[in-house]
Design a protein that fits this description.
Blueprint lengths: L7 E3 H22 L6 H23 L8 E3 L18 H25 L2 H22 L6
Antiparallel strand pairs: 1-2
Helix pairs in contact: 1-2, 1-3, 2-4, 3-4
Length: 145
């Protein structure tokens, strides 16, 4: 678990943490697929795993260049999910945890975007929109469980 005790991260350091978060999210959805899921939930988990891996890839490839910019986060903002999933969680609990993950990612990207400008701001805001869409799609599946 990483927190922004110092409240500032370089863009390069933020990108490393964001890649870890996206890779962890992909692993979360991969683990979720081991459950007995209704077809719409299974399809969404497969899609979200692929999209989180794609996010990690574009974050890895983002060229920071010579930017010396820093991102400021609110005190004690967590840059990773404090809760780990467990095999014995119900599918309904996994969906709730997935929603929490997506909302957290959206907040992380929006917070980062609020501290920077230019192309990086637009890039990060775009990721926040994707995460919000993921959360909304997950919310629509609550009725299955």
């Amino acid at each position: 678990m990483t927190s922004s005790k110092e409240n500032f991260l370089s863009i390069a350091d933020f990108l490393k943490l964001a890649v870890e978060f996206e890779d962890d999210s992909a692993a979360f959805y991969r683990a979720m697929l081991k459950k007995n899921l209704a077809e719409p939930v299974k399809s969404l988990a497969e899609l979200l795993e692929k999209q989180e891996l794609a996010h990690a890839k574009i974050l890895r490839e983002y060229n920071v260049g010579k930017s010396q910019a820093y991102i400021q986060f609110p005190p004690d903002f967590k840059l990773s999910m404090p809760d780990k999933y467990e095999d014995e969680l119900s599918v309904a609990d996994l969906i709730s945890l997935a929603i929490d993950r997506e909302e957290h990612a959206e907040a992380m990207y929006n917070s980062a975007a609020a501290s920077v400008s230019g192309d990086f701001k637009e890039f990060i805001k775009g990721l926040a929109v994707f995460e919000a869409e993921h959360a909304e799609r997950l919310r629509s599946l609550r009725d299955y469980y």
